[in-house]
Design goal:
HTH-type_TetR-like_transc_reg; elongated; single chain; HTH_TetR
Length: 217
Amino acid sequence: MAAELSAHHRRLAQRKREAIITAATELFLDRGYDGTSLARIAEAAGVSKSTLFKQFPTKAALFEAIVAESWQRDADDDAARPRTGDLRSGLTAIGRRYADLVGRPGMAALFRIVIAELPRFPELGRMQFQLGKLPYFTSVQQYLEAEHEAGNAEVPDAESAANQFLGMIANYVLWPRMLLTDWNPAASDITDAVDEAVRTMLARYAPDRRPDPKPEA
């Protein structure tokens, strides 16, 4: 019985946490980071102020949680850590997961909050980069390094290669959404964009790629 109650309390705490993060994200976007109080977030989330303060004593702590949860969603998914041995399959898994991640409306909202508040709160940009973008980017870089070391790819600069790959996908899935409110490409178009990015990477980094043509004399 005690175990059941404990599990119930954990589920209840998790639901409250999710409600707080959802309410905070919406309010930050609507009223700005500076214009949103923790008390207003508690009201919008339907929780007491003491409950909110217990989990998030400051707005900075709450924003950190928003960033971490936005970027680490599905972090334990097998697709997040493809095994080495098949560069095409690994890149496809990474690319589709990344497209799904940055294509969510919540991710575009997070970027909008950071961009809008950056002049007054540069620490929000640092949080977004250090807690979100950088760890994700590093995981892709490490995958490419592993394929290179295993002889499955020729990637002498994995940092640059990871930047190229994720950039190709974000340039189609995320960045237009920042400027075009009606940007909502079909799932098939997103799949095509990822597949094209994978083909481009294979053409550049697969060990059996065709050599570049020699320039004419």
